[in-house]
Amino acid sequence: MTKTYPKASRPSLDNVSVSIEKGEFVFFIGPSGSGKSTIIKMLLHEVAPNKGRVVVNGKDVTSMRSWKRPHFRRSIGCVFQDFRLLPNRTAYENVAFALEVIGKTKAVARRVVPEVLELVGLGGKEHRYPHELSGGEQQRVAVARAFVNRPLILLADEPTGNLDPDTSIEIMRLLDRINRTGTTVVMVTHDSNIVNQMRRRVVEIESGRIVRDQARGVYG
Amino acid sequence: MRVKYVLSEVLVGLWRNVTMSIAMIITMAVSLTMLGASGLMYRQVDDMKDLYYKNIEVSIFLTQEVTEQERTDLQTKLDGDPLVKDVLYVNKDEAYKRFKEMYQDAPDLVNAVKPDQLPEAFRLKLNNPEQYKNVYDQYKDTAGVEEIIDQSRLLDKIFNILTSIQNIALAAAIVMAIAALLLVANTIQVAAYSKRREVAVMKLVGASNWFIQAPFVLEAVVAGLIGSLLGLVALVAAKYLLFDGSLSALQGLLSPITWGDILFIFPLMAGVGGLVSAGTAWITLRFYLRV
């Protein structure tokens, strides 16, 4: 697929073709502006390619109407570098919010949220506000929120970008654990350390082209 | 839970930006009051037109030296005219009697006028008062006719004034409505900005569009409905203080405004207030939230 942003001199993604199997763990690496984030946006149906198709969970989302987007997004979890937590809500409320706004009842939230907070290692800190948590803990809350609805795919856009190396490793262990439950994990990163430790599939992008696609790769 | 959530968001939203909410409600109320007033006047003018035009007369005054023959010819012609419903002949004595009645407060004037000086006349009721012009054209050159006077020309002037007052009220309603629209748009933008984090998360986790938009749209609708209620209060006060109060002297002239009329106009005000706010909010969100 090809994506050219308006006013851009060269395409952000140029004739890129990549296929990710269910249950895989994939790193997208490459310098800033190489087009990694554009892939995430396409998977989220935030931007559409100019040429080619995007197929997610067996559904062609290239021509999906925008009113179907909300329902589509419920099958995808998302984690970002800046956590994107709601500052005036506790860890529990942040995770429960994600359930309640898609129509799940409070009873469901009461059952599921403590479970998933336990899974990410935040048992006992449910009622802390984001500012009372460390960066790593905030990112765990974000992961819990992304995972609480049991998505098929977890997209992580530089999830360790704001964290120190040790904390980053802990977050990676968490993502690895989530991957083992059968969830496909797609992660965009600059962090060579992490890529080298994890030894998972690596897709390297440069100037909008795939220059490397390697199973059990390193940062290079 | 979802309904409760949406409703509490609405109240929180109105309260968060309370000065703006009040400004929005006040402009909305003024605009809807004007709209309601102009609606009431529309009915009022219609009622008055019915009332007055039904009783309207065209008078054909005859010359002093009209002959018996001319008078009978005219009478026959009028009797056979399809435009004319009723013909009443008023001779000099009857004209004098009417004159005396009309000016009984001014005896000097009555004494100064002799029955002879007053012209004989035919008083006509027309089937359709608006066809006065045809009647005028048809009879103005008939022998023995001095002058044709139509009361509806006077009424037209009055109704023109009433219609322009009504138009001014409507124009004021529209101008205020534009101000209200801009305030609604601004309030919604501020609300969307202060909830941008929540909205971003909701979009991310796949909350449906209506769920994201509903609190904002309802916030505007609630403001519109409160505005229309205030407008209703203003109209009731206007009837109570103006029509039943200081203008009650004109009661015989103006057809009365009933409580029923005001209650009848209220759904219009509430509907316009609610729908216009909802529409503005929704369009604002399309630009601002891009959901």
UniProtKB/TrEMBL annotation, chain A:
One of its GO terms (molecular function) is ATP hydrolysis activity. One of its GO terms (cellular component) is plasma membrane. It is a peripheral membrane protein. Its main location: membrane. Keywords: ATP-binding, Cell cycle, Cell division, Cell membrane, Membrane, Nucleotide-binding. Homodimer. Forms a membrane-associated complex with FtsX. This is Cell division ATP-binding protein FtsE. The lineage of its organism: Bacteria, Bacillati, Actinomycetota, Actinomycetes, Micromonosporales. The gene is ftsE.
TrEMBL record, chain B:
It is found in: Cell membrane. Pfam families: FtsX, FtsX_ECD. Part of the ABC transporter FtsEX involved in cellular division. The keyword Cell inner membrane does not apply. Belongs to the ABC-4 integral membrane protein family. FtsX subfamily. Residues 172-285 form the ABC3 transporter permease C-terminal domain. One of its GO terms (biological process) is cell division. The keyword Cell cycle applies. It comes from Micromonospora arida. Gene3D superfamilies: 3.30.70.3040. The chain crosses the membrane at residues 21-42, 168-193, 214-242, 262-285. Residues 56-148 form the FtsX extracellular domain. InterPro entries: ABC3_permease_C, FtsX, FtsX_actino, FtsX_ECD. This is Cell division protein FtsX. Keywords: Cell cycle, Cell division, Cell membrane, Membrane, Transmembrane, Transmembrane helix. One of its GO terms (cellular component) is plasma membrane. It comes from the Bacteria. Its main location: membrane. Forms a membrane-associated complex with FtsE. It is a multi-pass membrane protein.
